[in-house]
């Protein structure tokens, strides 16, 4: 009889009919000489498949290896009481074919996956490591999280912008710029899309992007990548308090959105046992000045004390009002105290800073003075300055490191495991 080709995730709707499923041999168990179990993986899920009698006696069956690709035909049957299988059913195979056989022995993928604890193998063999259960779940959660960010902004009326990654201006300081030769001219890989988002405010209102940002930070830490996904938003006509509320609402809403999806929630619970989505409880808001009582005013908070503080408090913290000299050129001083700026970092337990944001200097002359103070040539920024010339307005925004957010959500030790192929030092 004919067989309908299905994805594993659609199994439940196709029980008791003959189906055809393609996939990778994720697990293999031989029981006696007349029975073989394959757990098949097709990216959409896992399926237990049973091969009996003559189906197990062929040359292909006797030499089958993990990670080989196969086509399996048969009927999907609910598993009997007391037996468990992914999805509650198994495929009773009546015919099957090998699509491509993977090597066994020393070259077997399992050998490589078993050395997952060796970091150098882990990253050189990353393309194979990502086939593992944990890495697969992490990448799937990532996909849902990216969608949740987009849904959050789209439902709040933001437009999505596609800014350039090849630029001629810095945003977050010259020391972390990657430069390259652009047809004979010096150019950079973008550190942040913020400046471009700002230029879109007059035409689209509130805007966001999820784009790559690049930082040449030669520190091999748990939370620095050379290339990372940066979720940034920019909003016109808001106050600093509106900005803080916007960051807090976004994080809560995105977590609630992924938590409401049963498949995603199950993966998060498995990766991060005990994780609880954030409730209505407001995030702690703390001024920099109060947070650094142990350091001296004007010190940047290094990574380890920052994490210590966050882990001790054990809750998200919106840390605000950083001193001007340690922050970016575009951050405005507050009216009450010109030493500090309308700036914010969101710190999460276990990771530390996941968001950086601020109001923006919106007055032309003040911005020019800021360039001068920082020793920056304003010429390449003429388009950014024009924003302050042709109908300027109070505005602000923020950037969230997607990998850091995910490290917090899925309880990963380093941000490297959150990308399929991280570029890292
Ligand atoms: O704090 P940052 O440098 O802020 C900006 O780039 C602003 N222009 C954003 C804005 O206001 N639109 O970076 C923002 C976030 C950080 O909080 C962190 O989560 C992440 O980007 N980030 C990194 N993530 C991974 N690897 C790195 N090297 C990162 N550098 C920053
Ligand atoms: Mg920052």
Automatic annotation (TrEMBL):
Its signal peptide is: none
Biological-process GO terms, alphabetical? asparaginyl-tRNA aminoacylation
The answer to whether the entry has keyword Ligase is yes
Q: What is its EC number?
A: 6.1.1.22
Q: Which UniProt keywords apply?
A: Aminoacyl-tRNA synthetase, ATP-binding, Coiled coil, Cytoplasm, Ligase, Nucleotide-binding, Protein biosynthesis
Localization, per the record, is: Cytoplasm
Outline the extent of the Aminoacyl-transfer RNA synthetases class-II family profile domain.
Answer: 139-420
Query: If you read the UniProt record, what top EC class would you report for this enzyme, in one word?
Result: ligase
Q: Which GO terms describe its cellular component?
A: cytoplasm
Annotated membrane-spanning segments are: none
Keyword Oxidoreductase belongs to the record: no
Catalysed conversion reaction: tRNA(Asn) + L-asparagine + ATP = L-asparaginyl-tRNA(Asn) + AMP + diphosphate + H(+)
Q: Name one GO molecular function term.
A: asparagine-tRNA ligase activity
Record's family? Answer: Belongs to the class-II aminoacyl-tRNA synthetase family.
Designated name of the protein: asparagine--tRNA ligase
* Organism expressing this protein natively: Linderina pennispora
Full protein: residues contained: 135 to 559 of 559
């Amino acid at each position: 009889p004919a067989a309908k080709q299905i994805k594993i995730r659609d199994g439940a709707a196709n029980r008791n009919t003959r189906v055809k499923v393609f996939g990778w041999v994720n697990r293999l168990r031989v029981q006696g000489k007349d029975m073989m179990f394959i757990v098949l993986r097709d990216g959409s899920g896992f399926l237990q498949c049973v091969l009996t009698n003559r189906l197990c006696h062929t040359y292909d069956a006797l030499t089958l290896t993990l990670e080989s690709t196969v086509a399996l035909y048969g009927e999907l049957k609910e598993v009997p009481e007391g037996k468990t299988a992914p999805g509650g059913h198994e495929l009773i195979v009546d015919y099957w074919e090998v699509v491509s056989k993977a090597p066994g022995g020393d070259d077997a993928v399992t050998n490589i996956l078993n050395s997952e604890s060796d970091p150098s193998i882990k990253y050189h063999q990353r393309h194979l490591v990502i086939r593992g259960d944990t890495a697969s779940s992490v990448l799937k959660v990532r996909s849902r999280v990216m969608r949740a960010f987009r849904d959050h902004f789209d439902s709040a009326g933001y437009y999505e912008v596609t800014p350039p990654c090849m630029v001629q201006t810095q945003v977050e300081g010259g020391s972390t710029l990657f430069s390259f030769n652009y047809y004979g001219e010096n150019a950079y890989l973008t550190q942040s899309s913020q400046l471009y988002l700002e230029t879109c405010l007059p035409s689209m209102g509130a805007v966001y992007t999820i784009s790559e940002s690049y930082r040449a930070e030669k520190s091999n830490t748990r939370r620095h990548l050379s290339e990372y996904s940066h979720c940034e938003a920019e909003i016109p006509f808001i106050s600093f308090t509106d900005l803080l509320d916007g960051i807090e609402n976004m994080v809560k809403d995105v977590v609630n959105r992924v938590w409401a999806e049963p498949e995603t929630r199950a993966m998060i619970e498995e990766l991060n046992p005990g994780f609880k989505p954030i409730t209505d409880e407001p995030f702690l808001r703390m001024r920099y000045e109060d947070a650094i009582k142990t350091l001296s005013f004007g010190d940047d908070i290094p990574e380890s004390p920052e994490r210590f503080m966050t882990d001790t408090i054990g809750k998200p913290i919106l840390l605000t009002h950083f001193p001007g000299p340690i922050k970016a050129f575009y951050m405005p001083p507050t009216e009450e105290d010109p030493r500090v700026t309308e700036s914010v970092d969101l710190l999460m337990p276990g990771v530390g800073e996941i968001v950086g944001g601020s109001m923006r200097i919106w007055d032309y002359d003040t911005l020019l003075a800021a360039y001068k103070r920082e020793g920056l040539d304003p010429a390449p920024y003429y388009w950014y300055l024009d924003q302050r010339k042709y109908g300027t307005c109070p505005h602000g925004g923020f950037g969230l490191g997607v990998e850091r957010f995910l490290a917090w959500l899925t309880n990963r030790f380093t941000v490297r495991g959150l990308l399929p192929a991280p570029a890292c030092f």
